[in-house]
Amino acid sequence: MFQYLSKTYVSVGLFRKAFGKYKRTVLVLAGFGFLSGILGGIGIGAIIPLFSFVGGQNGGANDPMTTLFKTVFNFFGIPFTVSFIILALISLFVFKALFLFMANNMNARAVADYNLNTRNEL
Length: 122
Fold this sequence. Notes:
Layout: H1 2-19, H2 23-45, H3 47-54, H4 64-76, H5 82-121
């Protein structure tokens, strides 16, 4: 058992030595990934109120997602109509794409920097 703990300790040490400089980048990338996932989930869930309009309920459904959207729309004084729901869906997916773009850009820069530093050390 101690043999596995020793190997784990050595592995963590090597990981810190190699990637310790990128701690902030890894945390920001994790945050971008989390926000992107949340926005994607809300965006997919936002289809439910849209279906309530298509189904002829005119937004009268009582599911949690429709209730959430009604509450948010009322808070901001936005009418709860099909056009504004579609606009909200588009906005959510655009923000998700923006977060993914920034995360991919940051990841590419970190990888390039890591490769450059590793080559210089060799």
